[in-house]
Amino acid sequence: MTLASPSPAATLADPAAPLLDFRNVAMTFPNGTTALSGVDLVVQRGEFVSVVGPSGCGKSTLLRIASGLESASEGTATVNTDRIGYVFQDATLLPWRDVQSNVELLAELNWQPKRIRTPKAKWAIDLVGLNGFEKHLPKQMSGGMKMRASLARSLTLDPELFLFDEPFGALDEITRERLNDELLKIFVEQKFGGLFITHSVSEAVYLSTKVVVMSGRPGHLVDTFEVPFDMPRDPEIRYTGEFAKLVGEVSHALREGHS
Length: 259
Description:
The chain is an alpha/beta fold. The protein folds into two domains: 2-83 and 163-258, Rossmann fold (3-Layer(aba) Sandwich); 93-158, no CATH class. The chain contains eight helices and ten strands. The protein has helices spanning 8-13, 59-67, 99-109, 114-127, 143-155, 173-190, 201-207, 241-258; strands at residues 2-3, 20-28, 34-43, 48-52, 74-79, 84-87, 161-165, 193-197, 210-214, 221-226. The chain is globular and about 50 Å long. Mean pLDDT is 90; it is low at 1-13.
C-alpha cells in the first residue's frame, strides 16, 4: 500500500488534481479484523462527500487513512494537500482554556505567532457564530457551542480538505439542523473539499454534493448518489418531496448493502 505524503507542491502544480484519491484501499488490523476492502473514493475541490454505512463498516477508518493517522494495508491513498482539518465526534476542547485560546490551539501548535493566530481565531469564531463567547470555558457551553468551537479551531488552518467524523451525532435534532445550516454556509464560502461521516441519511443528503453508501464490514462502496440541489441550499429543501425521494433511495441502498 502506498500513502502519498501530503504535497503542497503537487497541489500548486496540478490544481485540478483530486484532494483525495483512494484506489482499491483495504485495511486489515493486526488482530485480523478487515475493516475496509477495495475502496475507490475521490473527493474533488469544492465537493462535499458524505459517507453512510452501518456501524463497524470502517467509516472512521476511512477518515483516519485520509488524515494520515492510519496506513492502509493495500491500495493507494493519495492526498494532494497538507492543509487538512479534522473535526471529531467529540469537541475535544481543553477544559482550562476559554473559547479564544481553544480555537487558537492548532495554530499555536503549528508555531504561528500570536499576532497572526489571534485575529485568525477571531475570524473563525465569528464565522461559526460564537462571537461574544470568546472568554467562556467549555463547562459554560452547550454541546452545539462546543462543536462550533471545534469547527472554528480547524478553520484557523485554512483547510483545503475537511474531514468530519460524525461531529453532530450526539446533538439534539434542532441543534443538529442548525449546525448543518452553518456548516453549509461555511462550505459555500470557503470552497474546501469535505468528507463527512454520518449515520443520518437525511443529514448526508442535505449537506452533500455526493453521498456514498458503504456495505457492512469489510466496508466497500456499494452505491453513489449525486445530490442535485443547488448551493447555497435552502433549509426548506428538507421538507420537499424531491428531498424525501432521494433520502428514500439512499436508505434503500443502505439496507441492501447491509443485507
